[in-house]
Design goal:
165 residues; mainly alpha; 5 helices
Length: 165
């Protein structure tokens, strides 16, 4: 009986120890969390490609990525604002009670928004130029378009494969 109690205690404490030692379940995957994880993976992929394409050393990477992140955050906010401006303009353009003066004002806000995004991007390039050599800087200028083209080509290829199935 004593042996049985000891075995029972070992099993109970063992199972408690094992259950406590298990990693906590990840937060439930909500659509927003899923989107954020996809975006994070996408940004990591961009960073990896950027390091390879520009042939960055560690020091340059350490300087470039905070700039890239800062620029990305600022541009994301601007783009989010632009989407709201477009939604409002799309709604107001069909509303006859909204004056043309108001619509022109909204168009001006959209133009200012686009200029703000360009300014953020130009500032990012200007700061990057300080620690990249000329070839790396030129590659940085070419990278976005090259990456977008490659990415869109891959998406089209995936869609084509899906259609053929």
């Amino acid at each position: 009986m004593k042996r049985f109690c000891i075995i029972l205690l070992v099993i109970v404490f063992g199972s408690v120890a094992v259950s406590v030692a298990q990693p906590k379940k990840q937060e439930q995957q909500t659509p927003n969390n899923h989107e954020n994880s996809k975006r994070k993976k996408f940004r990591e992929m961009i960073a990896l490609r950027l390091v390879e394409y520009l042939e960055l050393n560690e020091d340059q990477s350490a300087k470039l990525f905070p700039l890239l992140r800062e620029s990305h955050i600022a541009r994301s906010k601007i783009i989010k604002e632009r989407r709201e401006l477009y939604k409002k303009l799309a709604k107001d353009v069909d509303d006859k009670s909204v004056s043309l003066k108001n619509l022109r004002k909204q168009i001006k806000e959209l133009e200012e928004n686009k200029n703000a995004e360009k300014k953020v991007h130009q500032e990012y390039l200007k700061k990057s130029k300080k620690f990249l050599d000329e070839r790396q800087y030129i590659k940085l200028l070419l990278f976005e378009d090259k990456f977008k083209e490659d990415f869109l080509r891959r998406i089209r290829a995936m869609r084509d494969r899906e259609r053929k199935k």
